[in-house]
Amino acid sequence: MKRIYLPVLALACLSLSGCDTARKIANNWPATGATTGSLTTDQIVAGLKEALTIGTQNSSNKLSAIDGYFANAAIKILLPPEAQKVESTLRSLGLGSTVDKAVLSLNRAAEEAAKSATPIFVNAIKQMTITDALGILKGGNNAATNYFKGKTTAALTDAFKPTINSALSKVSATKYWADMFTVYNKFAKTPVNTDLSAYVTGKAIDGIFFQVAQEEQQIRTNPTARVTDILKKVFGSSQAQTR
Fold this sequence. Notes:
Elements: E1 3-5, H1 19-28, E2 38-40, H2 41-64, H3 81-84, H4 87-113, H5 117-126, H6 130-138, H7 143-170, H8 173-187, H9 196-221, H10 229-236, H11 238-241
Antiparallel strand pairs: 1-2
Helix pairs in contact: 1-2, 2-5, 2-9, 4-7, 4-8, 4-9, 5-7, 7-9
């Protein structure tokens, strides 16, 4: 059976949450050399897929929790740009509380939608080939994230749209939005007519990929994140340094 070298296994820990799986795989496979070894293609791909499944599931779970988006400054969804331009005017009209509630509701809608991300990532992982795995290994620090972007953006958009439409109503976002801009648009020369669902969908997906990229970057660049001997050897090797 075709064999390739151990460095590919390191990608089984692209998220810290997937390292338990990689540790089990590493411990259960017999050593084939003092400092290097080889694994079958099937073993490597299976281990990578299992770890990525766990990692993306945990990323989705983290963002779908209460305040998963709202409490994370890097991905918190603010008012759309055209609305931000008139936010001070809205507050001067006595709508400050409504603005705050609107921002919170946008993030709650994204958190609700994030629950549907896991099966989409799992499907992309199932379709991963050994060529894909090698491309991730030899690619840059965001190679795995870019793989997911290419394979899942359209599906995530299709899945998130109806969920966010429903969630925006569920958390009263559309009500707060109407409360704000029904008043503002009466006096504005340029009314604000943002497609709120499309805006939140795009921002929610951006947040998912940001989280995946953060976890990928961690294992690639942070030595303390390499919790097994295999990871230490792979990412501390000259090959890893010159990737």
